[in-house]
Amino acid sequence: MKHIWLTIFILCALTASGQKSAKVRELENQRKKALAEVELTNKLLNENQQTTKNSLNRLNLLSQQILSRKKVIELLSQEMNAIDNQMADIRKEISSLEKELHGKKENYSKSVQGLYKRHQSQDKLLYVLSADNFAQSLRRMRYLREYADWQKRQAAEIVEKQQEISRKREELEKTRQEKQVLLGEREEENKKLQSEEANQKKEIQALNKKQRQLQAELKKKQQQAQAFNKQIEKQIAEEVARAEAEAKAARERERLAREKAAAAGNKVPDTPARDERMADTKGGYAMTKEEKQLSDNFANNRGKLPFPVAGNYMIVGTFGEQQHQQLKYVKTNNSGIDIQTAPGTDARAVFNGEVTRVFVVPGYNNSVIIRHGNYLTVYSNLSQVYVKAGDKVATRQAIGKIFTDTEDGNSTILHFQLWKEKVKQNPLPWLN
Fold this sequence. Notes:
Blueprint: H1 2-47, H2 55-117, H3 121-129, H4 134-209, H5 211-263, E1 278-279, E2 286-287, H6 289-300, E3 313-317, E4 320-323, E5 331-334, E6 337-341, E7 346-348, E8 353-361, E9 365-372, E10 375-385, E11 392-393, E12 398-402, E13 404-405, E14 411-420, E15 423-425
Antiparallel strand pairs: 1-2, 3-6, 4-5, 6-14, 7-12, 8-9, 8-11, 9-10, 10-12, 10-14, 13-14, 14-15
């Protein structure tokens, strides 16, 4: 019974050790992802030149880089803590194995000494021949065989336990070395972080000196943003009006059909026409049944929609009005999100839908609106457009090439918005 409980304990310890290893692997994967974000930001910073036009964007990138770097350092610390726990578990396993090995060695030694004292073969033969009857002799012979087999198993288990202890000690040493490597990496990351924070401080000082120039640039961008949003609101109003007109026309046709049926003495249909449009909210976009289903599918995919760009990207502008973290005099108001990516990247549809408008606004280049029932997605700052109004598009379909500003350090930024009816939504919670 004692050996059974000891075996169960060791199995539990091995399971715990496996879980710790899995945790370390998970943390390592997260750290690699965070490092990839740092490398992408570094690449974007190197491509961007120090100009007034993109100075705020550079500061945002640098701030994002510092956050990613801190995340890497935090994950390294978590990895080291997990490895400490793993090492403690391995030490416990080694201690348990050594205790069990000691017990097996003692039992085996006693059995060998006992046999030696009884002169083994002679005692065995006398033990069998001194039986009262033949059946008892057979039982004694079987006992002696089983006892011999038990001794062999004990010897094999002793060797196996010795090998297992050796493996565990090697694992412990390997884990200790991994921790030393992580310590070195964390020190290196801390040095890089200090350098980046120093660069950020210099950028902030430079921007403070160019305060008027920067505020003028921000004011210009805000005016362009207002003009851009007016175009979207105008398009939404036109589509709502057009859908409502179609719904009224359908109701009028249904009314005339009822009157005609009643005048002819026929049965008046009591169900609405199949093509009648219905809005979810008062004054909202009146949808057909197909559009209603598409809208519901879109809503059900909240948090699962693909990003509107393929490949590596960085969020350089978030949704809503916010005070800049580093610059007290800078306040931004964003109706969507700004996604910086590599030159030559295409914008892609985040869900099935229909292109309702392609238009141009200064500061945003070409823009595309796609309707998904009573939801709309907007893709702007495109140099080329691959679709036209009325086209049906599929999820992840390329709809245009994102503009690359060669005068602004090859800055390639997609401005993406998401609306429900006439209300702007924060796109990030919808994307995966």
